[in-house]
Specification:
The protein has 162 residues and is α+β, with helices and mostly antiparallel strands. The protein has one helix and eight strands. Keywords: Membrane, Transmembrane, Transmembrane helix.
Amino acid sequence: MHTSAKPPIPCRVARPGFSLVELVLTLIIIGLVAAMAVPRYGEAQARYRADAAAQRVVANLENAQTQAASSSGDITVWFRVYLDIFEITANASADNAELIYQTHLSEDPYFCDITEADFGGNHFVVFDGFGKPNTGGTATLEVGGLTRTITLDPDTGKATIQ
């Protein structure tokens, strides 16, 4: 007797992988997290740029004060408000000033605006041969709506960020 054996029916074997629904849900979640993170990143970047620009100005004011004292000559620090340029020159007069140092705060990495500079009614301060400023004052920097004010003490010449 011959019995015919029927071949076994192959069963579907589950393959490892992700379904289209799982992939779409994952992409939606990643998109939502990114949408929450991007504004915070922009704010953090503006805060970093404002702080870095203010620290740069303070360091340059300290450098100008040190140069004036070490050379026993006048050093002038100019705030070109409309150009967003910070300059250190060796003479008080803008006509015959010898440029020592210049920073374009509106360029990379700061992208900063000098919105105001008031040093005794001027946009500049002169450090004499002893490193003493002729006046105190403030300079205001702005990046993305954030402002940093640099205050120069008229007695000591110390610059601070507020």
